[in-house]
Structures are given as C-alpha cells and as structure tokens.
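Worked problem 6 (solution included).
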Amino acid sequence: MIKLNENFENLISRTQISTIRSIMNDINWNARLIGIKGARGVGKTTLLLQAIKLYLKDELDKTLYVSLDHIWFNSNSLIDLIKEFSQKGGRQLFLDEVHKYPNWAQEIKNAYDQYPDVKIVFTASSLIEILNARADLSRRAVIYSMQGLSFREYLQIEVGLEFQSIKFEDILQNHTKITREILKEIKPFQYFEDYLRNGYYPFFQEEKDLYFIRLNEVINMMLEIELPLLRGVEIGYISKVKQLLSVIAQATPFTPNVSKLSQKIEINRNTLLTYFHYLDEINLTKNLFKQNTGISLLQKPMKIYLENTNLMYLLGRNEVNKGNLRETFFANQTGYRHRLNYISHTDFLVDEKYSFEIGGKNKTKKQLENKPDSFVVKDDIEIGNENTIPLWLFGFLY
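Solution. The predicted structure is:
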C-alpha cells in the first residue's frame, strides 16, 4: 500500500485545476458510491484527481487514488486494500479503470456493505453494465456518463474564456439573445474548425502534432483490449470491426444495408448487427433508431454516425463530407443529454418532440413548412433568427 500512496502523492502534486469540466458540478460527490463511465481518453482520470484537489485538499491523509491496472493488484486484492484503508482511518477511495480488475463489482459491493465509513468513486469503460453486473450495484451506485469536450469547454481551455453552459430549451427559445452575448466576447468561427478536427479529446493540449497518433492508439486499445475483455469478441475478429468502422467513417452518413455489408465484410447478419451495437456502446459510433422502438442487440440502426467529428478526420483519411460533419457535431453535442431518434422527413428528432434539419448557410426551411417544433440549424452563420439557429451554439449545451 505504500507504493500506491507514493504514486497517488506524485499524481496529485502534478494535477492542475485551472480548467474544470462541467461534469464536475453535475456529480453529487457526497454520495457513498459513485460510478463514472466513459470512453477511453475523455478525461476520467483527470476528473478524479481534480475532484480530490478541489474538495479534499485538507483530507489527503484520509484519501487514496489507485488505478486497478496497477501491478500491485497482481498479488493483492481490492477488498483487502479497502479493509486496510478503512482500518487506517481512510474515508475517500478513488478507483480508476475498475474494468481491468476481474471481480471488481462483487468486491466493491462487499466493501459498500462492510465499510460504510468509506466513500468510493470509481471509473469504468463505457462498456461496463452496472445494471447487469453479477453483483447488483444499481441500487447502491450513482452512475454518471462522461464524454469528450464540448465546444464551450474547448474554448475555455484554448482561449481562457469561461462561458456558462446553456439549456437546450433556452437555445430554442432565446438563441438570438444568447448568441449576441457570446459574440461580444469571441468570434466562434476562429476556433470552430480546429475543434471539429482536433479538439474533442482533452489530450489535444499535449503535443498537438501527435494528436492523431494518440487518438489512433486510443481506438486500437478500445477495440483490441476492451471489446475482447468486456464483450468477448475474439481477437481474430477485431479486424472485421475495424473494417466496419472504416466503412462508417467514409459514408455520408452511413445508412446500413445489412445484406450487402455482411457479404462485403464476410460475416453473418446477426454478427454484423451485434458489432453495430458494440461500436455504439464503446462510444465510437452514434446509432439512430426510429421513434418508439426498443433498442435490442439485433435491431438495425436507421443511421450511424461516428461518435465525434475528430474520429471523422482520423478514420476518413481527411476525406470528410461537410454535411456529415455538421450532422455528427449536432448528434454528439445534443445527444449527450437528450434523446435522438431517426425521423424520415428531417435529420433528427430530439426528445421525441423537436425536429431538426442541419445544413449550410443556404439551407432552406422547405422541409419544415407547417411542422410545429421544427428548426433549421445552419453552419457558417454567426447568428440566427426565429427557428433558424447557428450550429456552433449547440456546442454550449454542456
């Protein structure tokens, strides 16, 4: 345990709190058991360390951060660590990457029941199923989902300007007024293209010329380690998953023809539909389904987008379709906290009520005539009017 403490002290001493993600304020840090799910690379580790530095700076002697892929756990158990931690007066335990530890759910459940004086916060892959874990944590843990940077958060890091996040309904009702206030502080198009290309993952701050190399490594680890570990995909089939991801990346957007694609990739229909589901679970794609249909493992998505625009530039080999780029941005920023569905006459249905058509500055309202609660979202405009809203503003939702 001495080694774990030394590692924690080293990490916390190097943790900066100059920029704080909005999810920090969304989490109830007083809960006894907190889980934070998210894709690799979105900043879960930094979030934990910043929370410690912000809220527990006077209780560091009762606090411990450990990553469960640490070599220490090769010969020691998590439950024994928690027991010793509690016996020595520990109160706040932060566990990173719990999915790397085989019996994590059962041991955390046991610790929750046996050591009520210890609060536990853990992070996990987006593939972790808390509800279906062998040890039922759903009644005990408060679960939060984390994704990459919003355009608003990117601006905070890149420019140093702090803007408040904006509620979805406020954008719909007051976007012109809100936009005017933002434009007094910044010209969004000075930074928007860079964000779409390489601003979604927080590690863009480190060696920008190596950004896509690191992003490629992140994707490979998700596909080659997390999918086999957490979904049992045989390593020999990962090349098929990568091939499927490449097909999706080059579409505009991708509308799956299951029969043709299963022949092209040489896998059967059910396996293909399962891979669609896994890619969405692991946060590499965003799958859209019809309204009022349950989402099952073998249900065919109506449309598939890459999860964020940065993936388009990496996987699409810089052959990025502008229309698909716009729709991907909208789906990513809006879909984080709102329900998205496929709808035939426009691009998106949000929260089963609002229809959105996405396009450039010359996009017309023809498709939305006589349709209530419908909006045109335009790229290449700074400010909108009535039911025409600038695309970049949806980057302020979180």
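Discussion: DSSP finds 14 helices and twelve strands in the chain.
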